[in-house]
Write a structure and sequence with these properties.
alpha+beta; Mannose-Binding Protein A, Chain A; globular; binds calcium ion; C-type lectin domain-containing protein; signal; C-type_lectin-like/link_sf; CTDL_fold
C-alpha cells in the first residue's frame, strides 16, 4: 500500500512537472525585478497592458542601457532564443497621446533613451485610420547592430508577445 501511494505521488509530481514545462508562460526574478515573458502568447498592445496590470505588473519599460541589458539577460535565461531567431515583444513606449512624442505608459516618463532600430520610429501608415503608435522591442539574430534589442513603432492593434515587469513602489 505504501509503495502504491509512493508510485501515485511520483505520478502526480511527474504530471505537475510536465504541465509546468508545457506552460507557455515564463516568470522569473532578476536583479530585484520580477519579469514575465508571454513566450508564445500574443496580444495587442492594449490587452498586453491589461494583462500585466491584472497581475500587479506593468508592461516593460526600457529607460536606459542598464534596463536593456537586464531584459536581454532575463530573456536569455528563458531559453527562448535557442528556438527562435527573432523577437518582437511589446514594451510600454507609445506616442498615442501626441504623435511623435513617445512616453512610457508604465511610468509616465518621456522617452529619453532613444534606442530605436534604424529608420524607426517611422509612424508607418497601415490604412486611412491607422498608423504606428506603440513600440516593440525587436531582435533578429542576423540583424547585426540593427534589430539588436532596439525599438520599433508598430500598429497597437497588432498582436505580439510582450514583457511585464514589477516596478519599485
Ligand atoms: Ca506614431
Ligand atoms: Ca515602425
Amino acid at each position: 500500500m505504501v509503495k502504491l501511494q509512493t508510485a501515485f505521488l511520483l505520478l502526480v509530481l511527474t504530471v505537475l512537472e510536465l504541465s509546468a514545462q508545457g506552460s507557455d508562460t515564463t516568470f522569473g526574478i532578476f536583479r530585484q525585478k520580477e519579469y514575465y515573458f508571454s513566450n508564445s502568447f500574443k496580444l495587442n498592445w492594449f490587452k498586453a497592458v491589461e494583462y500585466c496590470r491584472a497581475r500587479g505588473m506593468f508592461l516593460l519599460s526600457v529607460r536606459n542601457p542598464e534596463e536593456r541589458e537586464a531584459i536581454i539577460e532575463y530573456l536569455e535565461g528563458t531559453g527562448y532564443l535557442k528556438t527562435h531567431k527573432t523577437l518582437h515583444a511589446w514594451i510600454s513606449a507609445n506616442d498615442l497621446g501626441e504623435e511623435g512624442e513617445f512616453h512610457w505608459a508604465s511610468t509616465g516618463e518621456r522617452m529619453s533613451y532613444l534606442n530605436w532600430s534604424e529608420t524607426e520610429p517611422n509612424d508607418f501608415k497601415i490604412d486611412e485610420c491607422t498608423r504606428e503608435d506603440c513600440a516593440i522591442l525587436e531582435y533578429w539574430s542576423e540583424g547585426g547592430a540593427n534589430y539588436n534589442y532596439t525599438f520599433n513603432d508598430r500598429s497597437c492593434m497588432r498582436e505580439f508577445l510582450f514583457f511585464c515587469e514589477t516596478l519599485p513602489a
